[in-house]
Design goal:
Elements lengths: L2 H14 L12 H10 L5 H14 L3 H4 L4 H8 L5 H18 L8 H5 L6 H10 L10 H10 L7 H11 L5 H14 L18 H6 L2
């Protein structure tokens, strides 16, 4: 994708998805962190149903640690990968209490030190809660950005690096949400809805498929 096409794509995305925000429900940094951990290979809609119950009495790391692993697994079973997610949430909660005074740390390195928190999750928390410039590459962002031609990479980390180079820094966090919502609404994983896509004129994938 050349510079002109890139600028056109970003302009269209910014207009179509103006004001796009996370679909996950949360009230605190801790709730956001837990929700993002739960969202791995799970829909945000399902996570929101689970956290609506979980957070009624366990919305802080201290309260979460009153649960045993088995008890937490029962709450989050429907999110999938429930054993590892429960272990990660409890371990992260313990570190937040013991190492960070009960507060989710703002430092990127400290965030990544928490169990279950990789590059994507740390970027989401940094961007959404701490209002820092960041691009979190989930499955939607990875798929859409590489189809469009904003990136040409085979890993999420390389995709993140290329998106940071392609998108002005002040739009990183917004672009993350634009790409997610475009992936949900139009650029589906199995069958992208190219016929109803406002980006088809500047999309590498569309050009390849249609000569």
């Amino acid at each position: 994708m050349d510079k002109q096409a890139r600028e056109q794509a970003l302009k269209i995305l910014s207009e179509v998805y103006a004001g796009a925000r996370p679909a996950l429900h949360y009230n605190t940094a801790y709730e956001l962190l837990v929700a993002v951990i739960l969202s791995a290979q799970c829909t945000d809609e399902r996570v929101n149903k689970v956290t609506a119950e979980l957070f009624k009495e366990h919305s802080t790391p201290e309260a979460m640690l009153t649960l045993s692993q088995e008890e937490l697994e029962k709450y989050i079973f429907s999110c999938g990968l429930y054993r590892s997610k429960a272990a990660h949430i409890l371990s992260a909660s313990r570190d937040i209490v013991e190492k960070f005074g009960g507060k989710v740390p703002e430092s990127f390195a400290d965030l990544k030190s928490l169990a279950g928190v990789g590059q994507k999750t740390a970027n989401v928390v940094s961007s959404v809660w701490f209002d820092k410039d960041a691009i979190a590459v989930d499955t939607h962002v990875f798929r859409v950005s590489n189809r469009l031609g904003l990136a040409n990479a085979n890993t999420p980390l390389k995709t993140e690096e290329q998106l940071k180079a392609a998108i002005p820094q002040e739009h990183w966090s917004e672009a993350h949400h634009w790409l997610i919502w475009h992936g949900r609404r139009v650029c589906h994983s199995q069958k992208p809805d190219c016929g109803n896509c406002p980006l088809s004129a500047c999309c590498d994938h569309f050009k390849k498929e249609n000569g």
